Automatic annotation (TrEMBL):
Gene3D superfamilies: 1.10.1740.10, Winged helix-like DNA-binding domain superfamily/Winged helix DNA-binding domain. Residues 116-167 form the RNA polymerase sigma factor 70 region 4 type domain. Keywords: Sigma factor, Transcription, Transcription regulation. It comes from the Bacteria. This is RNA polymerase sigma factor. NCBIfam families: sigma70-ECF, SigX4. Residues 21-78 form the RNA polymerase sigma-70 region domain. Belongs to the sigma-70 factor family. ECF subfamily. InterPro entries: ECF_Sigma-70_Domain (IPR052704), NTF2-like_dom_sf (IPR032710), RNA_pol_sigma-70_dom (IPR014284), RNA_pol_sigma-70_ECF (IPR014303), RNA_pol_sigma70_r2 (IPR007627), RNA_pol_sigma70_r4_t2 (IPR013249), RNA_pol_sigma_r2 (IPR013325), RNA_pol_sigma_r3/r4-like (IPR013324). GO terms for biological process: DNA-templated transcription initiation. It holds the Pfam family Sigma70_r2. Interacts transiently with the RNA polymerase catalytic core formed by RpoA, RpoB, RpoC and RpoZ (2 alpha, 1 beta, 1 beta' and 1 omega subunit) to form the RNA polymerase holoenzyme that can initiate transcription.
Amino acid sequence: MHPETCPAESTLEEAVSVFVELRPRLFGIAYRVLGSAAEAEDVVQEVWLRWQKTDRSVVVSPVAFLSSTTTRLAINVAQSARVRRETYIGPWLPELIDTSTDPEVGAERAEALELALLLVLEKLNPTERAAYVLREAFDYAYAEIAEILQLSPVNTRKIVSRARKHLSAEQRGAVDTAEHQRLLTAFVSASQTGNVASLEALLTPDAVSVSDGNGIRGAARIPVLGRARVASLATATRQFWREADVRGVQANGRAAMMIYRNGRPATVLTIGASHEGIHKVMWVFNPSKIAAFLDSRRRSTSPLGAVRHAP
């Protein structure tokens, strides 16, 4: 130790070092459980404050302690978020995050990151969602998940298995990133030119279009169902595309389109696609969610985020 460095400073430096290393994983867990980057950041900040106050000399495994704290806090927030979302106007979509500079968002694998899957995860209760995320996206052992969730290993296996079955009934075989990009580009091109026939050829018969605007003008307040209706909606307003500046972005590990108006980001468009075609078209109009997407780009350049120190 440097002679001018006191033990307390050294200990805090170690605490910061450990937290910075694990922060991407902690954010990745919280984000997948919550579907909100802003709420996930709040959870991670709270974990950081608790980590400072903890007697770290008795913590055997920092990763286990921090993962457990993050997961439990995220479950609590998810339970209260369900009540808040009941007042949301129109369909609710998870917040998109920019993954161009942080492709895995702390995951060892990219599971449960694509927007269409995050939306399906919302149908699970928060504990089921957390168990699935810890197992599928971060490869935690069942015994570790059981300890985090304070359940028996047998019950934990049942919860993960039930979650898998529920999701498999909702999921379709996703296409690779190149095919996803091709389908999205073709969808935008056909929409811009008003080519309804081309659009219908890209869509599955049961395609659905979901617009998240929280009451904003121009955003459909109910999902639009069926190939013909989705194609018609995408081409209904020529002015929408004529005044738009469309730029490619990467969101949740997949290609997406940011639509600008008068130089300002106004809409994010992405899709869910399988080998049968595009089955879900997702439009984000809510200004706060677009702002959160743009803000997520800065997360990777600030390892601790807006750090607050424990009082």
